[in-house]
Write a structure and sequence with these properties.
Blueprint lengths: L9 E7 L3 E2 L4 E10 L5 E11 L9 E4 L5 E6 L4 E9 L5 E7 L15 E8 L3 E9 L3 E9 L5 E4 L6 E15 L6 E6 L4 E3 L4 E4 L2 E7 L21 E19 L11 E8 L3 E9 L16 E3 L7 E7 L3 E3 L1 E8 L5 E8 L4 E3 L2 E12 L1 H4 L1 H8 L25 E4 L7 E13 L6 H12 L1 E5 L3 E2 L5 E2 L8 E2 L2 E2 L4 E4 L12 E4 L8 E7 L12 H4 L11 H7 L3 E3 L6 E13 L15 E9 L2 E2 L12 E2 L2 E13 L4
Parallel strand pairs: 2-9, 10-20, 11-24, 28-43
Antiparallel strand pairs: 1-3, 3-7, 4-6, 4-8, 5-7, 8-9, 11-17, 12-16, 13-15, 13-18, 14-17, 18-19, 18-20, 21-22, 22-27, 23-26, 24-25, 24-38, 27-29, 29-39, 30-35, 30-40, 31-32, 33-34, 36-39, 37-39, 40-43, 41-42
Length: 638
């Protein structure tokens, strides 16, 4: 009955199942359960996987949409589910049976012929082995010598019915694949032709010898023919050694029938050796044509790049500086011993790259809450001493104390606050001069500073202005708000007062420091090479590639006559609001209501920079300070 003609049916069919397997080989049986029900249906299922000879169960791992030997499984409407059974092949045939919804009642089905899957997996007595070998980055060739398999192949004729006539003969042949271009200098030991006297059981396990040459993989540094590939991905070639063979002997016997004119009978009996299939994978690792250390070796990000984070750490890949390298290559004998060391120049200049970084530490040295605390506490306690109202006049009215920061218009309310940041950059240059990268980061952060408020002030000409000194538009008997923003570049406010003061290297040279360290090196094996060179060359712990030396014996060395410096620069910057605490008076006609003061550092567009850190994109700004002022009444009320 065709599947498409069945309605409300669950069926089982093989997804994957081998016909046979050798002992110990991993077997994966795949079952595909399909449903034509329009709704999700849950049904009982059960696996049965046993040896054919005695019906005993074998250990099985169940995978897929259900992971138990039996239970329930839900099949989505008009969909399918996959289930797998994985086991190691025993030395026996295996019977596999899978059944779902066996009685056809849950869900109800009319046709149950497709609810059962049965199969038999034949045991094939062969020897399968697999080995994988690396030809490390610094090895030109590698010699091999080993037994074909871990156990001998056996051919057994058993007992003759009569007597063996003559010797038992035969051969054990090893076939290499491919025949050319891989197994160089191939030879065998301990594999003579079979010629045994009355010996019907013969064993063979010859020694094979061959050499794997790097040049056969397309990479020939000695011949100045280099592959240009990803060094983390080896050139892979697969080879196979497989055997076939047999023994034979003439069995001469009497049949036992009287008057047999054909006696004695002579029968040629044959028996095969266990076939050996030895799959070999050779991974030749190549480091020739890479102009740059892979970018994945370095971080390219900004840590804590959030508006609520005062501390941010920039990581970016340094600008590239080319330098020449050499490497040492050798050969390996069959015991893994290195010999024949040969210096080989790299095809390209190696590029010095390193992890540049910028550590930004922002501090709120004296927030507005602290700056205005003395005056606010004095007002809260009803104290009228003028010296306590150093930066602002807060009312002592009891009914106004419910507000966090109440003021009456017309009194002075001086901008205040102290903020700072420190920038430490680490960069790598072939000259020890001050770096433009550091200078530009510092300047960008200075220029990102903003102080904004919508409070209304009065200037010396008795005009209504904002904090920046810009005239406010009239609105009847009062004025409309117009927020004013002060920055490091546009730092003057009411009456031309300098309200934002920046203290940096320009005001005090001691705010900038620089430390220069030469990145020294030696080109000989085992020489003294600075860690910063090692961080951009393969084969060192500093570059997180020590495994290349340990596993692949690959290490690079810098040719003499080339210099590099690690430059650590630090700049400390203070930003002070109204450093002289000059009184700035609010306008007496400022309407009642809530006003704000905000201090923040804006986003910095690193992407527009010509420096290597442009790949970081945007450096997030940060909210430094915030205060809300409640205006209730004016000075004329007092």
């Amino acid at each position: 009955m065709p599947f498409e003609m069945l309605k409300k049916d669950i069926s089982v069919q093989a997804e994957s199942i081998p016909v046979g397997a050798g002992a110990g080989r991993k077997v994966l049986v795949g079952i595909n359960i399909k449903s034509t029900f329009t709704e999700d249906e849950t049904a009982d299922y059960e696996w049965e996987i046993i040896k054919k000879s005695d019906g005993s169960k074998i250990p099985v791992e169940y995978l897929g949409h259900a992971t138990k030997e039996k239970g329930k499984i839900t099949i989505p409407g008009e969909n399918e589910r996959l289930m797998y059974a994985s086991f190691s092949m025993p030395e026996d045939d295996v019977l596999v049976r899978f059944v779902i919804n066996e009685d056809g009642t849950s869900p109800e089905e009319k046709y149950l012929g497709n609810n059962v899957f049965e199969a038999e997996i034949k045991y094939v007595e062969s020897i399968f082995e697999y080995d994988e070998y690396d030809i490390p980055y610094n090895v030109l060739s590698r010699d091999f010598s080993f037994n074909l398999s871990k156990r001998p192949s056996v051919a057994d004729l058993g007992f003759a019915r009569g007597e063996w006539s003559g010797n038992i003969t035969g051969e054990f042949r090893i076939i290499i694949d491919p025949r050319d271009g891989l197994f160089r200098k191939y030879s065998e030991q301990n594999n003579p032709p079979v010629n045994e006297v009355r010996r019907s059981r013969v064993e063979r396990n010859p020694i094979v010898n061959f050499t794997i040459e790097r040049r056969d993989f397309g990479d020939d540094p000695e011949g100045r023919k280099w592959l240009d590939i990803n060094p983390s991905t080896p050139v892979v070639k697969n080879g196979r050694l497989f055997s076939e063979g047999y023994i034979q002997g003439w069995d001469v016997y009497e049949c036992g029938f009287e008057d047999c004119e054909l006696c004695p009978h002579k029968v040629l009996r044959t028996a095969p050796f266990n076939e050996v299939t030895k799959d070999l994978t050779f991974n030749v690792y190549v480091y020739n044509g890479m102009k740059n250390i892979p970018s994945k070796s370095f971080r390219n990000e900004i840590e804590n790049n959030r508006v609520d984070s005062l501390n941010k750490k920039m990581y970016w890949e340094s600008e590239p500086y080319n330098f020449n390298v050499i490497r040492w290559m050798c050969r390996l004998d069959s015991n893994g011993k290195e010999y024949g060391w040969t210096p080989v120049d790299g095809k390209y200049q190696r590029t010095f790259k390193q992890q540049n970084s910028g550590d930004i530490q922002i501090k709120i040295n004296s927030p507005m809450e602290i700056e205005y605390m003395q005056a606010r506490e004095a007002a809260r306690q009803g104290i009228n001493r003028k010296d306590l109202y150093d930066k602002a006049v807060f009312p002592t009215d009891i009914d106004l104390q419910r507000f966090e920061y109440p003021i009456k218009s017309g009194y002075y309310f001086n901008p205040a606050g102290k903020y700072s940041f420190t920038v430490e950059t680490v960069t790598y240059k072939p000259v020890p001069s001050d770096t433009q990268e550091h200078k530009d980061i510092v300047n960008a952060l200075i220029n990102s500073f903003n102080y904004e408020t919508d409070l209304m002030y009065i200037n010396d000409y008795r005009e209504a202005v904002n904090i920046k000194g810009e005239l406010l538009p009239e609105r009847g008997n009062t004025f409309s708000t117009r927020p004013g923003i002060l920055t490091a570049q546009d730092n003057k406010g009411i009456n031309g007062i300098e309200l934002v003061t920046v203290l940096d290297r320009n005001s005090d040279e001691s705010r900038y420091t620089k430390k220069v360290e030469e990145v020294y090196h030696e080109h000989i094996s085992g020489g003294n090479t600075h860690e910063y060179w090692k961080m951009v060359m393969e084969g060192y712990a500093e570059s997180n590639t020590l495994s290349s030396r340990d596993n692949y014996k690959y290490r690079e060395y810098v040719k003499p006559g080339q210099k590099m410096y690690k430059i650590t620069e630090t700049t400390e910057v203070d930003i002070i609001i109204n450093k002289d605490n000059i009184n700035t008076f609010t306008h007496a006609h400022m309407p009642d209501g809530e006003y704000y003061i905000k201090v923040w550092m804006d986003n910095v567009d690193l992407g527009s920079s010509s420096h290597a850190y442009s790949s970081l994109g945007t450096l997030s700004g940060v909210m430094l300070d915030e205060m809300y002022i409640t205006v209730k009444g004016s000075m004329y009320d007092d």
